[in-house]
């Protein structure tokens, strides 16, 4: 399997752990970080909808809490017929952990196929308080 296929399989497996009793929309994410570490996450819903966590943010927070700082590639899997893009909040969180959004490939897949975009394609003007410092990653 190639790197994107491995990430997609990890995302697909992560989606099986989704807690989605309200939307019944299971999402899995797999993120490859600088150095090769891969983190995964699944969406976790809450009756108070604003407290719901998307799979992408679960994967980022898990890895960031372990010291990872530079996202290199993202794969998303949805148990649906149509691939879905990350929400704006997830895109902003991903941007926080990359120095060059145009270099971060996002593969978004479902049962019917996949599409690939860059983080910059999906978030062309991210909010930044300062320019990223590649040395901090």
Would you mind describing this structure in some detail?
The protein has 137 residues and is α+β, with helices and mostly antiparallel strands. The chain has one domain (3-136): Cytidine Deaminase, domain 2, CATH 3.40.140.10. The chain has helices at 3-15, 55-64, 88-96, 119-122, and strands at residues 27-33, 38-42, 71-78, 105-110, 113-118. The chain has a five-stranded mixed β-sheet. A hairpin with a 2-residue loop joins strand 4 (105-110) and strand 5 (113-118). The longest helix is centred in the N-terminal third of the chain and has 13 residues, at 3-15. The protein is globular. It starts with a helix and ends in a 15-residue tail after the last helix. The model has no long low-confidence stretch (mean pLDDT 93).
Give the SSE map.
Layout (H helix, E strand, L loop, with lengths): L2 H13 L11 E7 L4 E5 L12 H10 L6 E8 L9 H9 L8 E6 L2 E6 H4 L15
Parallel strand pairs: 3-4
Antiparallel strand pairs: 1-2, 1-3, 4-5
């Amino acid at each position: 399997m190639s790197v994107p296929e491995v990430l997609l399989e990890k995302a697909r497996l992560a989606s099986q752990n989704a807690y989605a009793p309200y939307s019944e929309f299971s999402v899995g994410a797999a993120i490859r970080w600088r150095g090769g570490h891969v983190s995964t996450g699944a969406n976790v819903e809450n009756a108070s909808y604003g407290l719901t966590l998307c799979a992408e943010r679960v994967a980022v927070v898990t890895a960031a809490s372990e010291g990872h700082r530079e996202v290199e590639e993202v794969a998303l899997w949805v148990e649906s017929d149509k691939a879905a893009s990350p929400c704006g909040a997830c895109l902003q969180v991903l941007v926080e952990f990359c120095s060059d959004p145009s270099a971060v490939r996002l593969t978004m897949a479902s049962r019917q196929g996949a599409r690939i975009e860059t983080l910059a394609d999906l978030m062309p003007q991210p909010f930044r308080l300062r320019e990223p410092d590649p040395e901090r990653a």
